[in-house]
Structure formats: structure tokens, C-alpha cells
Amino acid sequence: MANVQSRRTAMNGSRSGTVAALDIGCSKITCLIGRNDGSGPRRFQILGGGRQQSRGFNGGAITDMEGLERSIRLAVEDAEREAGEQISEVILGITGPKLACTLVTAAIEIGGRSITHKEIKRLQALALSKAPSKGVDVLAAWPVAYRVDQQEGVRQPAGMYAEQLGILLSVVTAPRPIIKNLVECVGRAHLGVSALVPSSIASGAGTLIDDEIENGAICIDMGAGVTAVSVYLNGSPAWLGLVPTGGTHVTSDIAQGIGTTFAAAERLKSVYGTANLEGPGLAERIEAPRLGDDGRLQGMRMEKGAIAEIIAPRIEETFELVQKTLDASGVRSVLPRRIVLTGGASQLSGVRDVASRILNAPVRLGRPTIAEFLGETLGTPAFSTASGLLLYSELGFVDAAGAGVAVKDYGTETGSGAVNKAFHWLRENF
What we know:
By secondary structure, the chain is of the alpha+beta class. Among the domains are: about 100-175, Dna Ligase, domain 1 (2-Layer Sandwich); about 225-365, ATPase, nucleotide binding domain (Nucleotidyltransferase, domain 5, 2-Layer Sandwich). The protein is about 35% helix and about 30% strand. It has 13 helices and 22 strands. It has a five-stranded mixed sheet, with helices on both faces. α5 packs across α12 (about 385-390), α7 crosses α8 (about 260-270) and α9 runs parallel beside α10 (about 350-360). Residues about 1-15 and about 405-430 have low confidence and may be disordered.
């Protein structure tokens, strides 16, 4: 209990406005501690950052509670040491193939009157009540667009006169056990969770510039275990999807393809890897250690192009799955043409060219928009999600669930109500 008390004391005496973000991924856990200087939503002073190898987390679910707790503690302690102060709660990113995004619609009669904020909230609550609720909690619910009578695509209908008001609401849910286990694990590290944000949405918030968010863009975050896709429309998150392939799958392909260890394959990928089968230097012979009959690595040589022939099919498959996911989404008819690629695996040579060819659109490589404040070490695509978690609340996205309009349904509190109860319980008991 002494550690708990010291954390609370430290936080009570810390400088106001300090926020912390915790991104739990399949290969790494990152923690950022920062404070907005008040001059704009993206004006963050980064006080400290920590990064640790992720243990006990795979495919969006916990596989080893103690291992993951230790990784979280180490990442947070690194960030606290650099920041010179302790934290007591974090904004937590959540990912995995079990996250689901559903688009729901609803409408209410206005009767020719001026639309009020109260009626907008009532409409949001009505739409939210139509979202799936059995065994899941709502992480977020963003109004994508409103319909005022026959006028589509209205962003803010307050003050307009109408007979009928409609809404298209994007609702993100996750299985309740996954949320409870993650919050419990973070709680064991003596940290409360102030907010839960889908990691793919955080990646977009951290990587897309304001113009892209306002006018629409697709952010593709290539992580180690999954590739997350988020779509922004009308200045707001609109949809997310997840593809179960990432950088570790490429590494595994190399290890299996040439008969070497995972660590050796990771180094080969990082130093010599490319997804471009027509690039220069593919005939160059490189050192590629392989496992011998005695189970030890032996020095071998092979052409660089042989590595590319293993990497390229997996990268192509990843973007083909991304395209299928987008084609099956509820926003396929209004998909923006701007595509931003981020995440650690996006830094592999040739990936952008493959993405542009398969998705048939221009693609830019994105890094955190607050990279100038993160510095050279943290200002890389690997920290896009963590930086986006810091920025998420600053960017002012309307969240119908977080705004307290969730209603009781099926005899229990849906959406953020159930999650907030868990947060409150953890803060009180840990």
C-alpha cells in the first residue's frame, strides 16, 4: 500500500495538466507523459517516455497477467524517471481483432422547431441504444453525420429548423472480459484508467494533420501483430477495422523460409529487408545465418533479393486484406482518397510503394504530428499511437458514450457506464 500512497501523493503534488498515455501492443509497450502548454491542441511538452518489450499480450488479449503487469510497470517507471514525477492514471489504448465497429442510424421528430442540444443528445442516446450490447462494452460512439430533413452530411445541426433530425453514429465495442482484464492488469500496476481509446483511432489522431481529419483520410497503422485501419470523415473518427497480420508475421516468414532463428530473421528484415522486388541492389550477397544440424547458427550467404521474395508476398497480402476490409465497411461509398501509413512495420523499405499499388491511391508515410516535441528517439512511427492517446481528448472529438448520454438497456448500463464503474472501483481499491 505504500507504493499506492506515494503515487497518490506524487500526483496530488504534480504540475497541473500532466497526462499520461499507455499503449499496449503485441511487441512493445510505450508510455508517454506530457502536458499541453495551452497554446493549441497539438502543443505538448513531453516530460518523459518509456518503452519496453511486451510480454503476456498477444492477438489483443492477455496471455500472461503477471508478465504483462511487469512490462507495464517497467515502461511506466522509465517514463516517470525521465519526467521526474509519478503518475496515478493513464489514457489506455486498446486493440485486437475482437474490437468491432458498427454504424447505426436513428431519427426523431422536431416538428419544425429549432434543434436544441438537448434534442441532439436524445438522438445520440436513441442511436446508441441500437448498438450491440450483449457481452460487450461501448468504447466510443462518434456522430459521423446528421441529416436535417433531406439534407445529408450536416456536421452540427444545433440551431437549424427541421421537421426531422437523423444521425449516423459509429459505435466501437469490445468484449467485456477483455476490457476488465486489461483494466485489472493496469490496476495491479497501481494505475487508474482515465479513458479507454481504440488504438487504431489514436494512431490516426496522432498521425493525421488537421486538414486530413477535417476533409477525410485513412490511417493504416502497421503494428507487430495486427494492422489497424481507421477512417476519419467530417472531422471525426468514422470507422475502424483490424487485419490480423503485422511485422512479426514478416519476421516469422523469413525465419521459416531460410531456416534461422526469429532474432536473426528480425535483424535481416531490419537491415536488408525490402518489399520492392524491382529495387536496386537485390543481387547483392549478404550474410544470412542459418541453423545447422547441431542447432547452432552458421554463417551463410544469399542474395538480398531472396529476402525480398519472402517479404513481398506477405506485405501484398496485408494490403489486399486491408482493401477487402475497407470494401466491406459501412463507409465504403464515401471512403477518402488520402492514405497515411504509420506504425513500426511501415518503416520497411518498399512498403509504401506496395500500399499505393494495391490500394490504388497516393500514400504518405506518417509520423507523430508532435514529433518536434517528442525528439529523435520518440518521434518515430512506433510512437504514433501513444502520441495520439495524448492528443485524443485535446482534438475535441464528440463522443456520445463518453458524454454521458448512454442509456440503461437490457437491465444493465451499456457502454461507458459499465467501464466507468470498473475504473472507479479500481481507483478506490488500488
